[in-house]
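User: I'm curious what two different proteins look like when written out as structure tokens. Can you demonstrate?

Assistant: Sure. I'll show them one after the other, since each token string lines up with its own sequence. Here's the first protein:
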Amino acid sequence: MKPSASRFLCLLTIFLVLNTTFTFAQTQETSLPMSAATAEAEKEKARREEEKRRELEKKAVALLGEIADAADGLKLSVNRVSVYGTIGALLWKSDEKRARNVINGAAQEIINAQNAAHDEADDSGSGSSNGYQTTEWEMQEARRQLVQALAPLDAEFALEIYRRTRSAEMAALMQSPKSLFPNGSDYNRVQNEINTEHALANEIARQDPKRAVRLAREILEKGLSYQLLDLIDRLKSKEPEEASSLADEAIRKLQGADFSTGYNDRNLALNFLTRLSQKPSADGGVATRAAAEKSKFAVDEGGLRALADKLINFFLRDQQAESYSYQISQLIPTVEKLLPSRVEQLRRRESDIKQRQARSNPYERLNKLNETADAETLVTEAQNAPSEVKSQYYSSAANKLINAETPHVERARAVINSIPDRRTRDYALQNLNTQLFYKALNAGNIEEARRIVAQIKSKNAQVAHYVQLFNHLRQKKDEKPARQMLDEAAALVAANPENREEVSAVVQLASAYSAVAPETSLALLEPLFARFDELLHASILVNRFSGGQPATRADEITSQFFHGALGQFGFYLSQPDLAKMAAADFDRTSNLANGLQRPEARIFVKLMLAQAVFAQLGNKAAADITYGNIVDLPISTRRFRSLNE
């Protein structure tokens, strides 16, 4: 059963009554004695700041209550999971017991959705309908987001939730991972589960290394992951013997892998070899070397050499090695340490592949020339180069001229004007102006930087450079000329943006203004949200018709789709920028959501704002939560989600 509105209203009401505040460490530097009047003024200033902070927190908590009330009316379980999970993470610091209840409610939503999907598949006689697959994938995204937000707060609880919400189908697949087709869909799904569990074990290791070791062994039975390497690194100092044993066991597993069918195993082998064979360098510092000598962590070098030998033999005989020759280059430094007698074989193999690539792939010849040739040689080569790479030869030559110790700007412009492809030519000219701009900026020549900006054809690019000037001048404490840069940029942005670049320019300018004039930021964004509402509805309509199938679920978009649309159309606003606007005018910032017609879209925007404010107030969980994007917990594959699936 989904949590009721009354339950959330009760929860938030109690939370408001408690009015628990975040504790902030405050430091005061008293290098010089201050007068009584100055001290009193500082005290009064601190009191006013604390009042503002408390008022902002009170409004953010009230907004959270509003969101919780509205979330109960969401139609899609995946949306309820996302919203409830976020609310639980935000509540955690002030009321852990109730936060756990909310997160347990989100977990139950996942279980209910999986059961419903299973029942539906049974009724239809198939579990492979397009609608079911999409719903399942979206729910797994929400599930991983839930544990990602929870992991820094209570990693053990996050692991419990993750395992409790694992579907019966996935649990069955994980019981026999060796039977799965390498690199297939089920293999990747199982690997995602293993990766996430290792990442959670890594988090648990911060507080309970012994528990993390037991978990790592348990997960290792199911498979390997890149996160296991991070866990081994974390355990080296606290549980060195156990870390050594884990490393040796992982190496033994990789020795039995079939590199011809499992590219994931080959990548893992290369990573494990590279990381586990590393030793502190001679210039790593006395303390570093001494700690390494005292450490009981040691990997069986015989196992490392055997794995290196297996990889070498594979690279030497595999006919497809040309497609991943970069891995041979990565392996060579490790082989130099472990099996120096075999380095020459690998180098010959690498050289043969590069020569074949240079003959068959014109880009390889360009890359090789670019490493050693000067600009004029590249210009000469460009004249006889294949048409598909001719423009790249000239672009590379121009870059060398610009980045020379003494830049040859006019010669670079002449070379760029020789580029036959118009788009490449325009991009190269823009790149030239950008590099000259930063050279002037780094030299402190503001007037020269402004002159270069004036030469840029694109108004959107000009806005971006004005913002960089603003940031540079603010760092120099030149507030008045910094503000002038933004005001000049404001005259360039479109009043009614007609494309993504124009939207991005307005949003970028609004973000910059948030530091000095948040009311101007809001004035820029308010009409923009009405434009985004139009784009969102258009995107929904196009997506529905392009799917080619009738709608199979309620007419409600997911949070992943919504946040994907924000990025797609250039409406990216960072948490710090939103928090600055909210601190200046909370109600007006919250009202940005009212520019959207869809109720779920309004919830998502308000939740973004709540997260931003809580993060500003010191709640790390708020800063860690993301939508439609997993930051720390790995996902090996992604795909666009269709609304009508």
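Here's a second, unrelated protein for contrast:
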Amino acid sequence: MISTEANAAHYFVDRHIPEGRAEKVAFREAGSGRQMTYSGMAKAAGQVAGALARADFRPEERAALLLLDTVEFPQIFFGALKSGVVPIPLNTLLAAPVYDAILRDSRATILFVSEPLLAAVAPILADNPYLRQIVVVGGDAPDGFQGFSDFLREAPEMPTRAVSPDEVAFWLYSSGSTGQPKGVSHIHSSLKATADTYGAQVLMIREDDTVLSAAKLFFAYGLGNAMTFPLSVGATTVLFAGRPTPKDMIATLNAEQPTVFCGVPTLYAAMVAEMDATGPARAPLRVCISAGEALPTDAGTRWERHMNVAILDGVGSTEMLHIFLSNRPGDVVYGTSGVAVPGYDVRLVNEAGDDAGVGEIGELLVNGASAASGYWNKRDKSRATFEGVWTRTGDKYERRSDGRFVYCGRTDDMFKVSGIWLSPFEVEQALASHASVLEAAVVPMRDSDGLEKPKAFVVLQGAAPEGLEEQLQTFVKDRIGKWKYPRWIEVVDDLPKTATGKIQRFKLRDVAQ
């Protein structure tokens, strides 16, 4: 049924004013002192909607958001939802040719871009056939561009548009961990669905919480952490606009005193390495969460020793909008992804499409209300991923006898050694638990007989000790099995990753061939 209440902007923005939160801080920026109350956000979002309508941007047109995590992000995102324009948050770490492909694929007609990011897209803007307007956020707008304050000047506040709960609200582009990003469309009701499930029943977000998410707003995990979940209960979010280095995150924890911290495995591993040397951060954390890739056991246990709070490791996807399989408060088992989040059903299927039994490896399928409506302009991929109520995740898992799920790797990353399926993640986790290793990635490489065997790329903590390769091979044999050890080990400065922290193993496979 079409109604104003079905618009996600009503639930996450408008209702807070009559509920008495008008003067409460919704967002504050770490380091800058800038902040925005709930009433300020409602007013600004209404002005963005009014400015879009005044400039003749109509419902279902697309607005690309190439924005840092500043207070303007939620204003523009929810302002677009209010007006019916479809916002598309973009990864802020891409190269100009990728932005060109995404802007052309989405046919966005307006681009909001943070001033520090303008140079990244400037080379491809003049030739774009769809963009009618470019709005620069923060700093001074160069000639030929409009500044955000000018875009809003004297714009009327537009009331929230009535929509269907099933109407497309926004898009996200997939992280590109297996290749070119894909446009994923989500409907208005999906945002509240994630808040009602993971946000309320696993994270157990509260109005008195202060949330800090190292994961950025432009991708699904960060959008839920720093916007959907806090706004669902009237909490406060600390926005961090810069690159979340371990030192900066520790300093921000100390300065901002959040109660909820949201990170990714790579960052947690780097932060515990930093805290090993400098001591723990001092923040009143009651819960920490992780997603993006499976959290190594060593990173979780070391974090808990430093911070006296467990990390709730879980798995989600752009297609499902947030986490649907997770550990829970008071029930954390590192090395597993926990169990299904309330409101979601999961199943494992083998290569024949039959349900996999306990102890067998299968592809994870998930059913829940936050599933995307499909991929833009990718019909075959949509049909392969979205099968009725089930969404294929592309993740391989094993279900233990206690009902917990153990991550084995991406479907594309699994390979057989001596006729037995090998989980790259299992080998990576074993390597990462060695004192000399910060992180690792494992891919197949063919030996002189043309048979696939594991090759490891490792990032070290400090200098390489004498005989490192033999040490690591023996270490893995003793930990997880003699046939699983990496036959080759290459030390690298860093691993190729998406902006969400996922290792791009397909790039390493190309190197290993």
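A detail about the second structure: Residues 187 and 194 are 12 Å apart (CA to CA).
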